[in-house]
């Protein structure tokens, strides 16, 4: 975003870029490169854009139930003569953004495709040799490579790949095969998962900040027995306890901390986290399914995407977590690496269950 601000406020750079585009020179803007073409953006602003396309870039409205940022694979509604997008149909492309431009009568001559996420927003624009896309071709697999090649070589033919078309152009659930490599207590590299809070290196945009939360269940006779948020659990505790709170841990669950997963999730969202990776110490490596109680608790508490992790042992566990919670993605490690459950089997099962995924 800082680069976009610099371009829009640098009179020399803005004038040169505006003149280049107005002369119909070949141009491809990606993500912020699309947003910069509009009159202004509300992000860190208002901030002036190049003013080539009518409209103001605004934040997604999370009040209608969508999670912000918009992260993952979504489909496009492609208009006629979209140029570099011709032939890709309803195949998914990869988005990661919190702000979007909306179609209107004033900018309709520019709009080459739209996408649905709460509302219909502009996914790409085109006028002559000038293109810009809100999604990330460089993250969109073979379809993304085709888009880039079609821009560089307009006669590039589309070659169908294993990436099938979605039944409906909507956000797909993500299935993530994870491999975490960290150092153990002796400093040796080991393959593990979820042994510490992890705020990853991030850019100026908060959607790049992923926070890992690693809680464990603490059973209670009454929800009033603790100051943290406690819920009635599906499976009772060892002594018949009907309630539990989820205590945050570090060092692979060996050390507890005086804060609940619910409270931490709401705090990191307030601080600007873009996504939560939610582990469960009790379920990790058990292969008996995700902790649905925990995942539902956190998904309902925040409006940012949540990745469900820990406990998957079968394809049915993935459909369960997607149908019973609002998780945006589901992650597993061991079952994929040991080839106990092939990744494609999970996706094929989800498709049969009517859950949108990218094949």
From TrEMBL:
<keyword id="KW-0028">Amino-acid biosynthesis</keyword>
<comment type="pathway">
    <text>Amino-acid biosynthesis; L-histidine biosynthesis; L-histidine from 5-phospho-alpha-D-ribose 1-diphosphate: step 5/9.</text>
</comment>
<feature type="domain" description="Glutamine amidotransferase">
    <location>
        <begin position="10"/>
        <end position="142"/>
    </location>
</feature>
<protein>
    <recommendedName>
        <fullName>Glutamine amidotransferase domain-containing protein</fullName>
    </recommendedName>
</protein>
<dbReference type="GO" id="GO:0000105">
    <property type="term" value="P:L-histidine biosynthetic process"/>
</dbReference>
<dbReference type="InterPro" id="IPR013785">
    <property type="entry name" value="Aldolase_TIM"/>
</dbReference>
<dbReference type="InterPro" id="IPR050064">
    <property type="entry name" value="IGPS_HisA/HisF"/>
</dbReference>
<dbReference type="GO" id="GO:0000107">
    <property type="term" value="F:imidazoleglycerol-phosphate synthase activity"/>
</dbReference>
<dbReference type="InterPro" id="IPR017926">
    <property type="entry name" value="GATASE"/>
</dbReference>
<dbReference type="InterPro" id="IPR029062">
    <property type="entry name" value="Class_I_gatase-like"/>
</dbReference>
<dbReference type="GO" id="GO:0004359">
    <property type="term" value="F:glutaminase activity"/>
</dbReference>
<keyword id="KW-0368">Histidine biosynthesis</keyword>
<dbReference type="InterPro" id="IPR010139">
    <property type="entry name" value="Imidazole-glycPsynth_HisH"/>
</dbReference>
<dbReference type="GO" id="GO:0016829">
    <property type="term" value="F:lyase activity"/>
</dbReference>
<comment type="similarity">
    <text>Belongs to the HisA/HisF family.</text>
</comment>
<dbReference type="Pfam" id="PF00117">
    <property type="entry name" value="GATase"/>
</dbReference>
<dbReference type="InterPro" id="IPR006062">
    <property type="entry name" value="His_biosynth"/>
</dbReference>
<keyword id="KW-0315">Glutamine amidotransferase</keyword>
<keyword id="KW-0378">Hydrolase</keyword>
<dbReference type="Pfam" id="PF00977">
    <property type="entry name" value="His_biosynth"/>
</dbReference>
<keyword id="KW-0456">Lyase</keyword>
<dbReference type="InterPro" id="IPR011060">
    <property type="entry name" value="RibuloseP-bd_barrel"/>
</dbReference>
């Amino acid at each position: 975003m800082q680069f976009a601000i610099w371009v829009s406020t640098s009179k020399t750079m803005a004038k040169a870029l505006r003149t280049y585009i107005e002369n119909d020179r070949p141009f491809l803007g990606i993500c912020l490169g699309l947003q910069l073409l509009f009159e202004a953006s509300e992000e860190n602003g208002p901030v002036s854009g190049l003013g080539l396309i009518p409209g103001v870039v605004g934040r997604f409205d999370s009040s209608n139930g969508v999670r912000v940022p918009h992260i993952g694979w979504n489909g496009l509604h492609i208009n006629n003569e979209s140029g570099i997008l011709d032939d890709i149909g309803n195949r998914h492309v990869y988005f990661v953004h919190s702000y979007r431009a909306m179609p209107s009568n004033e900018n309709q001559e520019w709009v080459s495709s739209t996408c649905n996420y709460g509302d219909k927003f502009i996914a790409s624009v085109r006028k002559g040799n000038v293109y810009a896309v809100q999604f990330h071709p460089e993250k969109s697999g073979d379809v993304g490579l085709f888009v880039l090649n079609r821009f560089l070589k307009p006669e590039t033919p589309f070659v169908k790949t294993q990436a099938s078309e979605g039944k409906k152009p909507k956000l797909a659930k993500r299935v993530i095969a994870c491999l975490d490599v960290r150092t153990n207590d002796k400093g040796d590299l080991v393959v593990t998962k979820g042994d510490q809070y992890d705020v990853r290196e991030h850019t100026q945009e908060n959607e790049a900040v992923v926070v890992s939360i690693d809680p464990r269940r603490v059973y209670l006779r009454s929800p009033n027995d603790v100051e943290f948020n406690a819920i009635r659990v599906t499976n009772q505790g060892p002594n018949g306890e009907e309630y539990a709170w989820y205590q945050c841990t570090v060092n692979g669950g060996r050390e507890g901390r005086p804060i609940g997963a619910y409270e931490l999730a709401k705090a990191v969202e307030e601080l600007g986290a873009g996504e939560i990776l939610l582990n469960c110490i009790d379920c990790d490596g058990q292969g008996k399914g995700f902790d649905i109680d925990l995942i539902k608790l956190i998904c309902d508490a925040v409006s940012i995407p949540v990745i469900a992790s820990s406990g998957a042992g079968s394809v049915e566990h993935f459909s369960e977590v997607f149908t019973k919670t609002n998780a945006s993605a589901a992650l597993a490690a061991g079952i994929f690496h040991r080839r106990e459950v092939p990744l494609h089997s999970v996706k094929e099962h989800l498709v049969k269950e009517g859950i949108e995924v990218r094949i």
